[in-house]
Amino acid sequence: MNSFRFDELKIGMRESFRAEVSSEKMHAFRELSGDCNPLHNDESYAREKGFRDKVAFGMLSSSFLSTLAGVYLPGEHSLIQSVEVKFLKPVYSGDSLLVSGEISEMNSTVKQIVLKVSMENQSGERVLKGKMKVIVNE
Amino acid sequence: MNSFRFDELKIGMRESFRAEVSSEKMHAFRELSGDCNPLHNDESYAREKGFRDKVAFGMLSSSFLSTLAGVYLPGEHSLIQSVEVKFLKPVYSGDSLLVSGEISEMNSTVKQIVLKVSMENQSGERVLKGKMKVIVNE
User: Fold this and answer.
1) What ipTM was predicted for this assembly?
2) What is the rounded CA–CA span in Å between residue A101 and residue A132?
3) Could you list the residue range(s) of the whole structural domain that residue A103 is in?
4) What is the reported pLDDT for A31?
5) Residue A131 is assigned to a structural domain of this protein
6) Torsion from C-alpha of B29, B67, B88, B118, nearest 10 degrees
7) What is the pLDDT of residue B120?
8) Exposure check for chain B: N or C terminus, fewer CB within 10 A?
9) Do B70 and A35 touch (CB under 8 A)?
């Protein structure tokens, strides 16, 4: 786990890691959230809706943003203030997501960083983009 | 599960439900996301940082927004396009959150609704607010 302090961070710093979306994680997310929508649970239903398989919960992919801030950038001293995400393409069970964040703004008065975030699948398709505001609570 | 079609929806329509934050859900979210940050895992660490207990993952609370759209408003035909959340106050294990959404805008060309979302804890404190754009994919 990284433990960057505010003074060690700079605009343009980047971190990334891979996160896997599995049927076990789909099941765990359904139990956790209570979201039993068939798009995420029933393959033939999802096909009727025009997808090639059950679609992964967007908020499951978004859970990796917690890890991006809390483990990588800034890591230990992370306190997430806000998150904005756009879902660009469907994510499926079996996908391997490259989760990336880059510091785009810094506010030294409140030790806040802004991260531009992005996720790509194993085919290099961008599936998610967004922005997070994180306090470095050192 | 609700199954509202676009034509059945109106600006001002609201849905809400209660969701519990438990230590089991904290554990499940940690496994799912890989976010092993001590703020969510170590009570004495969280106290040193000024909190009264381990802080629930913001993205765990946010997972209930998946349920808000996918089960309640619009329910079955939900396809979430984007989510914006601000974390206003800490959430702790044992908290019972009232998760609410209200339709604030509708775009009939693309059958998109905008939900103003909010979460309150059992003491009536607002802990999260935000906005979601959802396609009614009927």
Assistant:
1) 0.97
2) 9
3) 6-21+57-136
4) 97
5) yes
6) -170
7) 98
8) N
9) yes
Q: Do A83 and B59 touch (CB under 8 A)?
A: yes
Query: Per-residue confidence at A61, pLDDT binned at 50, 70, 90?
Result: very high
Using CB atoms, pick whichever of A35, A66, A85 lies closest to residue B67.
A35
* CA distance linking residue A94 with residue A100, whole number of Å: 19
The dihedrals phi and psi of A39, each to the nearest 5 degrees, come to -55, -30
pLDDT (tens digit, 9 = 90+) per residue, A78-110?
999 999 999 999 999 999 999 999 999 999 999
Task: Answer whether A9 touches B (CB < 8 Å).
Answer: no
Can you give the pTM of this predicted structure?
0.97
Q: How many domains does chain A have?
A: 1
Does B85 sit within 8 Å of A35, measured CB to CB? no
Looking at the domain assignment, is residue A109 inside a domain?
yes
Q: Taking the CB of residue B19, how many other CB atoms lie within 10 A of it?
A: 21
Show which of residues 94-133 on chain B sit within 8 Å of chain A, judged by CB atoms. Answer: none
**Rounded CA separation A22/A96 (Å):** 9
Whether A72 and chain B come into contact, CB under 8 Å, resolves to no
Q: What's the CA gap between B134 and B111, in Å, rounded?
A: 8
Q: Name the nearest CA neighbour of B132 among A136, A87, A88.
A: A87
